[in-house]
Amino acid sequence: MKIATHFILIDDSSFDLFIYEKLLLKSGMALSVQKYFSAKEAFNWIKNNAENMPESVILLDLQMPDMNGFEFVDEYSGLPAETKEKIDIFMLSSTIDNRDIERVKSNPYILDLLSKPLDIEMLHTNLLRLKK
Amino acid sequence: MNEHKIKLLYIDDEEHNLHSFKATFRKQYEIYTTVSVIEAEQLLDTHVIHVVLADQRMPVMTGVQFFEKIRDKFPDVIRILITGHTDISAAIDAINKGEVFRFIDKPWDYKYVQNAITHGYEIYRTKEELRQRNIELEKANEELDKFVYSASHDLRAPLMSILGIVNLALIDDDLSSQNEYLELIRQSVKKLDTFVINIIDYYKNARGVPVISEIHFDELVTDVLATIQYLPEREKVVINTHIEQDKVFYSDAMKLRIIFNNLINNAIKFQDDKKADKKVNLTVTCTAQQVQIKIEDNGIGISEDDRINIFKMFYRAGAIKSGSGIGLYIVQEAVNKLGGEIDTTSVIGKGSIFNVLIPSINNAQP
Q: What is the ipTM of this complex?
């Protein structure tokens, strides 16, 4: 089975957005990729398009100015259940800080912490497990 | 002067002892006296007391009992017991229960009492200083923790970006995109290098011994401008410098360089791409007492929310152009170390002004 879904990338690094968009499109896993420099903008888009948006996977950076990854998830948790059902969130970060890792593990809305650079095979395996 | 006097509290049920003690020592110390242990406790509550002297034989409670009572509540106060006669069990109690610092025999010897108070006060001060150091250390540790956390992110993030680009380049068969990947790698390496340089600046600034020398602002500014001539945005920006200095000025050139470098860099970096006449005005007005540095740009400006926070460590205003968030923090630290002030005014879309005022160092020494 091969995964094919919609992706939303949230990262303050333009390099990383560029890299992961290319990787996802090349891998054939992505039906579409949306990129956001700012978590706030991404959140507003989701909030305003909740009804029409397709099932999507969010790859969320942790350390960003203004609204960081955890703050994004805090806001996200307040969205209606129907919206959240359509979305799976993975955190994608270069962090090696244990406190961050613990925080991700204990957060009910984040499925897993993937380390940068993104390992596309690993993401695929993770998504397959979800679909089962 | 009063502030530096040792503050004593003396409790004795015999009032004439209190009077004669006060008469002897009033010029040296700030002395509070009372015949009542209750009032003594109130005095400890309401005043800073360094050393407490108590008579052992008192009607309501003994000196040792009093010390035992106040020991936990006022652990820092130095306790000295005054006894009329040597009683071994009282002495043992005094040490074990009252944890007294010294015994003084009645009738007291002036020199001996003075000596006991002086040494007691030294212990008090040492404890106080130790506590102060501990607070400072805790603060330093906290800062270090934050520093390591953010630094590790800023050091690793560009590396992981590079690794990501390399991985992508390896699976891309289209050779024409290789140059694009190399360009991205170059930018990432640049970013990492800037961060490393900033960290080194930070440590030089925070830990380095200040070197005070004569400052020639025209030379300093020329130097700084030379180091930034290769910035990609530099060639699109017109820099006007206006430097007035006819007096000798003393300061730490390294710290001034950090200030100029970061502020000019920011003024160039945060330009408005929509504007055709991108400019930075640098004005330095130097007298024998102080220098006023004004760096004005017509760039994108800073929002009020950001303006309050930009000097905080690792605060990054705006997602796109901001660096690691350490530059202005280092500027603030440098300005503080030089005894100066910095303030910012800005209008979104119009530009920003950074004003720095720094006193000449020779001025501080009379």
A: 0.81
